[in-house]
Amino acid sequence: MAEDPTGAAPPPDGDRPPDGDRPAVPVAPPGTMPVLQAAGPLAERSALFGEAVALGIPAAPARLNLRAPAGSASMAAAMQELGAPGWPLPANRWTALGPDRQLVWLGPDEALLLGSDPAIAAAREQLSAVLGGTAPCAITDVSDGAATIRLSGPRSADVLAKGCPLDLAVLPAGAAVQTLLGHLDILLLVLEPGRDYDIHVRSSLAAFAWDWLADAAQEFL
Amino acid sequence: MSQTSRLPQGGRIDRARSLAFTFDGERLSGLGGDTLASALLANGRVLVGRSFKYHRPRGIVGLGAEEPNALVRLGSGAAAEPNARATCVELFDGLAAESQNRWPSLTSDLGAAAGLLAPILPAGFYYKTFMGPGAGAWRVYEWAIRRMAGLGRAPSGADPDRYEQRFAHCDLLVAGAGPAGLAAALAAGRSGARVILADMDREAGGHLLAEGDDLAVDGQPALGWAAAVAAELDGMPNVQRLCRTALAGLYDGNYLTAWEQVTDHLGPGRGGGLPRQRLWRIRARQAVLATGALERPLVFAGNDRPGVMLSGALRGYLHRYAVLAGRRVCLMTNNDSAYRTAIALQRAGASCILADLRSDGTPLAAAARAAGVEVLTGHAVTQAQGGMRVDRVRLRKMSESGGAMIGGLRKEAVDILAMSGGWGPNVALFSQARGRLHYDPALTAFRPAGGPQGLRCAGGADGATSLQAALDGGVAAGLAAAADCGFDAAPLPPLRAEEPDVPADGGAGRVRAVWIVPGEHPVGRGPKQFVDFQNDVTAGDLQLAEREGFSAVEHMKRYTTTGMATDQGKLSGMNALGILAEMRGTSVDAVGHTTFRPPYVPVTFGAMAGRRTGPLFDPLRRTPMQGWHERQGALLETVGQWQRPLCFPQALPDGKREDRAAATRREVLAVRHAAGLLDASTLGKIMVEGPDAATFLNRLYVNRFDSLKPGHCRYGLMLTENGTVLDDGVVARLDARRFHVTTTTGGAAHVLDWMEELLQTEWPDLQAWCTSVTDHWAVATLSGPLSREILAPLTDIDLANAAFPFMTVREGLVCGAPARIFRVSFTGELSFEINLAARYGRALWDCLLAAGSDRGLVPFGTDAMHLLRAEKGFIMVGQESDGTTIPDDLGMAGMVKGDKGDFIGKRSLSRPDMLRGDRKQLVGLLTAEPRTVLREGAQIVAPDAPDPRPGQKVPMLGHVTSSYFSPTLNRSIALALVKGGRARIGEAVKVPVMGGPPVAASIAPPIFHDDKGAAARG
After folding, report:
1. Phi then psi for B907, rounded to 5 degrees?
2. What ipTM, to 2 d.p.?
3. Could you read off the pLDDT of B899-915 as tens digits, one per residue?
C-alpha cells in the first residue's frame, strides 16, 4: 500500500467501515447551501465599441430546441399557441414572437425558441399544455449550450465576410442561417442587413469566436 | 549623377518625389511612381540577378508579372521577402533590395562555375549524371545540389506582418482593368449588376499605361478615358474596383482567389491599421477575363544576356517611367509591334537598328525609316554577346525559308537588344478553369475556344490585336454577362478608338513563326539559346528531351522543367511548344499544350494563412472551469479541440513545483483514499427523446435500453456496421421517452452525426430526436470514498446508498441550481457526476473544492483518470480498441444482447473471422520486475522467441495498449491485446525493447484493483 503524499492521511482501505455501519447521510436542509454565481462563457470579455463596428454581449437568452416531424399537427397547434406562423416554420428565417421571444428555423423538423428566462418558462408551459406528454416531439433545454454575440455597425458585414462564405448582401432582415465563421459553426441572425447581426455559437467556442471577431474588427476600430 | 537613363520629361512619374533605395547595399534614388525595375533601369542597372541552374548573370526582361529574371530579396530579418519580382514592386522610400543566387557578389559569383559544368548538366541531369559510385552517392550529390539550387532564402523569423482574408460575391468579376476590362465593367456596372474589377496595377489602364500619348478613345487621350471610366466605376455603389490585386486562381463555378497587396507599396511598418496583404475568395456568377496579351521572347544564341529585353517592355519603360534603357538599341522582331518601340525610342534620342525576321517587310517600315530607324528586313540577330551586359550583336540575313543564314556577318555595338516574338493571349486563368484553347497560326499562339458556363474572354486575352477590337470585345462581354445575370443593360454607345499604327482592318500585321532563330552553330552546340530563363532551359535541352523520347508535351515539361518555375512559363510556354512541334514535324495544335495551374502569380504563405496564426490558428473549446485550470498552472493536453488538464502540479515546500508523475501519483491516491474532482464537461452529451427513443437506442447499442428503468443508467457499447467498437458511454433514462446519452470526448460530434444519419436514412419511421447538450452542461465528477460526505451538505438529493444506488440518476438542486447527478464511476470509486447548467460550472467547481478541502479533496486531471480506470481495467475507446476490435475482444461479449432484435453491427459479429479463437483479447500484463513500465504500443512475443534481427521473422502475439506505474498497487500495470489472451492468463511473455534487453512479463486478468467493484457501489 502506497503512502499518501498529501499527508491528509485518509483511512486505509482495510479500516473502512462496512456499508451498514455508516451513519445515514443527512439531506442538506434548505437555505444552508451556498448560492452559485452564474457566469457565461464571455464573462471575461468586455464589449468593444467603435463607430464602424461594435461587439456586444446581449443578455443571455434561454433556449429551447424544438423537434417534431415537418407535418406534425400537434406542433403546428403549439406554434399557433405561441403566435408563430405554423410548423414547419418559414425556412432560413427567424420571427419575433412579441417583444422578448424569437423563434428560429433550424431545419424542416427543428426550431430554436429564444427568450428571457420567464418568457421561455411561460412558453414551455404553453407548449406542454398543447403537446401533453405523448406528442411525437422533443423539447430540450439548451439554454447554456450557446452564447450570443451581437455584431453591429456599418462595417459589421465586412467583419463577417472575413470568415463567412455566404453572400451577406442578399440576406434580408429576419434571415437565419447556419453557416461558418472561419472554422466555427455559427447560427447567424440578421437583425438589420449590413448593420446588426446576432451570432450564436457553442458556449465552449464563444470565447474563441469573440477573440476571432475582435481581431477581425481591429482594422475598423 | 544618378538616374542617367531617365529622360528629362515625360512618363507617369512624380518628379517632385525622390525616393531613396538600395540595391545590394548601393544607395540609389528613384521617383514616385517607379517600380523597383524602372528605378534600377533609370540608374543604368540592367543586371539584377543570377540564374537558377547555371548562375548566369541576368537582367530585367519584362515589365510586369511575366518577368522571369528580376527576382530580388526585399527587406531583411523576419520581414524579408525572397523572390519579389522587381517589375511588380512599387518603389518606396527606404526600400532595400538584394540580388539573389550569387556569392559573394552579383558580379563575381562563384556559383557561376556551374556554367563551366554545363556539359554534364543537361536536361534530366540528376537522373543520369549523379548515379554512382555506390548506393549512397545520391545523398551526397543531393546535399550539394540542394545548396546550389533553389531560389532565394526564406526569412529567418516569424512573419511580423498582418494578413487578412475575406469572401466576396458578385454578379460579374472582371479580371484586368485594361481597355477591354474597363469597357466590360462599365457596360455591366451601368446595368446595375454587382461588379468586381480586379487588376494587378495601382491604376487602371492595363497596357495603355505602357503606350505613348498617340492612342485615344472617343476623342480623348486613351489614359484619360481610362481614368474617367475608373472614376465612374468608383462612383457606382454596385462596383468594387480592386487595385494591386492579382487573380491567382480560377476554379469550378467561377470561384476565384485574388491576392491583394494592400500596403506593400508603402513599405514595412507604414501600413497603419491595414493588413499587408489580403486574400479574397470570390464567388462570381459570371466572369470576364480581360487579362491582355503577353509578348514572347525570341530564342537565339545569347538571348539571356542582361540587356536583352522584350520590345513592349522597353516601350513601357520609356512611356510610363521616362526611362530610356539604352542609347544604341537593336531590335529583332517577327511582327509589327516592335516598330512602335523603335520609332518611340528613336524619337526619345536612341539610335535603333531593327532586324525584321520577315523578308517581305511591312508598311510600317517606311514610318520607322522616316523616324531614323535602320530597318533590315529578313535579318536576324544570330548572337547577342557581352558579359554582365549585352554589348554587341551579330546580324545576318536569313534565307527565304528561315532555315539558314546567308550573306555577310555584321557586328554592331549595342547596349540594349529588344526582341518581339509575337503576342499571345494571356489565357492562364481561362485554362485553369478548363477553358478550351486552339492554336491560331495567324497569332502564332493559343487562343480561347469555348469556355465553361459563365466565363468569357475579352480583349487581348481573346486574341484582339487592336485597341478598337479590345474595346468592342469588352463591351460585348460585359453586356452579355450582365444579361446572363438578368440585368437589362442599356447598350453602351460604341467606344471609338484611334490608333496611328494600326491598319484599317485592325490587324497588327502578319507574324512569322520563327521558333528558333538560326544561329552560326547547330542547336545545342554553340552559345545557349534559352527558352525558359527562370529554370535555365535551352532549345538544346528540348531537343535532347525529344531525342530521348520525352516528346509528349507533358513529358517534355517535366523532363526539362520548362514552364515549371515561379513564372509558370508565361514567356517560355509557347516557344517550347513551337520548338517541339518543329522537332516532331507536326503542327502546334497536334502537340497541344500543358495544363495551366493556379496561382497565376506566386502568392505569399502569409496571405494563405491569413489571421489563422497564433491563438487563432485553430478553434479552442473551453469548459466553464477552463480559466481556473489555467490559473492553477495545470498541464494541458489537446483532446479534439479541447485542452484538458493532465494534472495539477502543486507547489512544493522548496518552492519548486511537482513534476507530472508526482502530481498524477498524488491525485490518484487522493481519489482512492479521499476524493478527487474532475472536470468532465468535455464528455459528449446527447439528449435522445421521443416515443421511439428506447427502440432507437436498442438498435444503436449492443445492449438493451428498453429494459432500462427510468432513473437508471447503463453502460452502452456502440459498434460500426462492421461490428467493431465505435464508441462507448453511459446512457441514463430520465423518463419513459427521454434518455441522456454520454459519449467519449473525442467521439461526440461523430456519434451525433451517426445518430442523425441513421434516423434520416435508415429509420425515418422512428420518432426520436437527438439534440447535443454537450455545451449546455458543466460536469464536475466527484470521486472517492469521501465524495458522499463532501456533496451531501450541498444538495437536496438524498445521497444514501439505498436512495441513490450505483448506476442511477437523480435530479435535484446543488447549491440551489437544478442539477442532474449520475452515480456512475470510471475510477472505480464512489462517484457522483454532477451536471449543472454551464453558467454555474465555475462556481460549482469552487464550491465543491471549498467544501472538500478539509477532507483532502483535490482536483485531478486526465493522467490520473486514465491511471485510475486502467487499475480497474476499464477500456478507453481508441486506446484499448482500434478499428478491428469487437466486443468479445474486450471481454464484453456478455453485454451483447442478441435476443433483442437487430442492432448496428450484429450481423457482422457472426462472420467467421469474428468467431476465431485466436483473436486478440484484452488482458492485463504484469512485468516480472515491478518497477519496469512497458511502452504503450510495444509488441508482445513468446518467451522463447528469438531476438528481433533484420531478416528474422518473430511471431507477434499482441501489443501493449495502456501502461502505467500504479500508485495504488505500487507496481507497474499494463493492458494489452494478446492473441487468445484470456486462455493464456498466467503465461509468461516477452516484450522486446529497442536498444535494450526484452522485458519479461506475465499475462494477468485485466483488472488490478477491487475486482468485485465494491468501492463504486459503496
Report:
1. -60, -40
2. 0.93
3. 889 999 999 999 999 99
Alpha helices in B75-221 (DSSP H): 113-116, 125-128, 137-148, 179-191
What confidence score (pLDDT) does residue B120 get?
66
**Strand bridging mode B220-221 / B530-532:** unpaired
Residue B1 has pLDDT above 50, yes or no: no
Length of chain B as a residue count: 1018
Give the HSE-up count for residue B992: Cα atoms under 13 Å, Cβ half-sphere. Answer: 16
| Residue B209 contacts residue B87 (beta carbons within 8 Å) | no
- Cα–Cα nearest to B174, from B236, B228, B239: B239
What pTM was computed for the model? 0.92
What interhelical angle do B179-191 and B467-484 show, nearest 10?
30
Percent of all residues in chain A with a pLDDT value above 90, rounded to a whole number = 78
Which of B:659-698 have CB within 8 Å of A? 662, 665-666, 669-670, 673-674, 681, 687, 689-691
Task: Please list the alpha-helical segments (H only) found in B610-657.
Answer: 626-631
SS3 B196: strand
Which amino acid appears at position B420 of this protein? S
Instruction: Inspect the interface and report whether the beta carbons of A211 and B968 lie closer than 8 Å.
Output: no
Please give the angle made by the CA atoms of B24, B30 and B34, to the nearest 5 degrees.
105
B437-440/B374-377 β-pairing: unpaired
From the list B164, B769, B816, which residue is nearest A138 (CB)?
B769
- The 10 Å Cβ neighbour count of residue B988 is 13
Q: How many CB pairs under 8 A join A and B?
A: 205
Q: Which of residues 519-558 of B touch A (CB under 8 A)?
A: none
Q: What is the pLDDT of residue A30?
A: 55
Q: Which of B618, B619, B771 sits opposite A138 (nearest CB)?
A: B771
8 Å CB contact between B514 and B402: yes
> Residue B985's Cα: distance from chain center in Å?
52
Q: How confident is the model at residue B107 (pLDDT cuts 50, 70, 90)?
A: confident
Asked if residue B677 lies in contact with residue B782, where contact means CB atoms within 8 angstroms, the answer is yes
What's the mean per-residue pLDDT of chain B? Answer: 93
**Min Cα separation B858/chain A (Å):** 10
- Provide, for chain B, the percentages of residues in helix, strand and coil under a 3-state DSSP scheme, each rounded to the nearest 5: 30, 30, 45
What is the C-alpha separation between B626 and B618, in angstroms, rounded? 17
Q: Return the number of other C-beta atoms located less than 10 Å from residue B139's C-beta.
A: 9
**How does pLDDT run across A117-137, given as a tens digit for each residue?**
999 999 999 999 999 888 999
As a whole number of angstroms, the distance between CA B41 and CA B982 comes to: 83
Q: How far does CA B615 lie from the centroid of its chain?
A: 19
